[in-house]
Design brief:
Blueprint (H helix, E strand, L loop, with lengths): L2 E4 L3 H13 L6 E4 L7 E2 L2 E4 L8 E3 L4 H13 L7 E2 L4 E2 L4 E2 L4 E2 L4 E2 L4 E2 L4 E2 L4 E2 L4 E2 L4 E2 L4 E2 L4 E2 L4 E2 L4 E2 L4 E2 L4 E2 L4 E2 L8 E3 L4 E2 L3
Parallel strand pairs: 1-2, 1-5, 2-4, 6-9, 7-10, 8-11, 9-12, 10-13, 11-14, 12-15, 13-16, 14-17, 15-18, 16-19, 17-20, 18-21, 19-22, 21-23
Antiparallel strand pairs: 3-4, 23-24
The structure holds coenzyme A.
GO molecular function: acyltransferase activity
InterPro entries: AcTrfase_PglD-like, Hexapep_transf_CS, PglD_N, Trans_hexapeptide_repeat, Trimer_LpxA-like_sf
Keywords: Acyltransferase, Repeat, Transferase
Length: 200
């Protein structure tokens, strides 16, 4: 079998770090990235998306691109692989969906449900009973308290905090360093302490 890491950018390479740390060095790994096809990343071949023909993980931060690419590959009958760095902690009764990635020093507490193609970056915490819908993203250093719901495609930025029991709506984006004290409406960007809608 070959594992294809879709996206040869920063998160793709960090996902490869997690694969290496997990220690299965016998399995071939390739990157897939239409912009870098034919080149090499970390000494590994980079292929075009059309050439992916085995298990894959989409390691692209943008949730819309992640959803589109994973749907296309799954539509071709390919299987998404879940990658967990061995230095991440996954609590009892927590379930990770297919295609999700959890990097080093993430602490995902007990009884959480993570959907498909979720990305949990390094130095993050998720409290107990969190529910993360498909293609959600928790960026480095963010702290999500217990029983929070991140709806489909929501992102929590670096070093942000989301108070317990709140909902971050579908496609919403919590800016870096924000402290979220109220539910965040769908497709809204919030920043600051306390977090408020971001005037662009
Ligand atoms: C919230 C965010 C999406 C806004 O992006 P943007 O619309 O491109 O914002 P801009 O950089 O154009 O900044 C617009 C204004 O918002 C302010 N601003 C931007 N991000 C902010 C944040 N997180 N908190 C507070 N203010 C912020 C800027 O200072 C600027 O203010 P000014 O007009 O008074 O100078 C982005 O700044 C952010 O926080 N992204 C998350 C980054 C992250 O976590 N990266 C991790 C990578 S691994």
């Amino acid at each position: 079998m070959t594992l294809f890491i879709v996206g040869a950018g920063g998160f793709g390479r960090e996902t490869y770090d997690a694969v290496l740390a997990a220690g299965d060095s016998t399995e071939p790994v390739m990157f897939c990235d239409h912009a870098l096809a034919g080149e090499k990343t970390r000494g590994l071949p980079v292929v075009h998306p059309d050439e992916v023909d085995d298990d894959f993980v989409v390691a692209i931060s943008d949730p819309d691109a992640r959803a589109r690419l994973s749907a296309g590959l799954e539509g071709r009958g390919l299987t998404p692989r879940t990658i967990v760095h061995p230095r991440a902690v996954i609590g009892p009764e927590t379930v990770l969906g297919a295609g999700s990635v959890v990097l080093a020093m993430a602490y995902v507490s007990s009884s959480c449900v993570l959907g498909r193609h979720v990305q949990i970056s390094y130095n993050t915490t998720l409290g107990h009973d969190c529910r993360l819908s498909d293609v959600t993203t928790v960026l480095p250093g963010a702290n999500v308290a217990g029983s929070v719901h991140l709806a489909t495609g929501a992102t929590v930025g670096s070093n942000a905090f989301v108070r317990q029991g709140l909902t971050v709506g579908a496609g919403a984006f919590v800016g870096a360093g924000a402290v979220v004290t109220r539910d965040v409406a769908a497709r809204t960007v919030v920043v600051g302490v306390p977090a408020r809608p971001h005037a662009r």
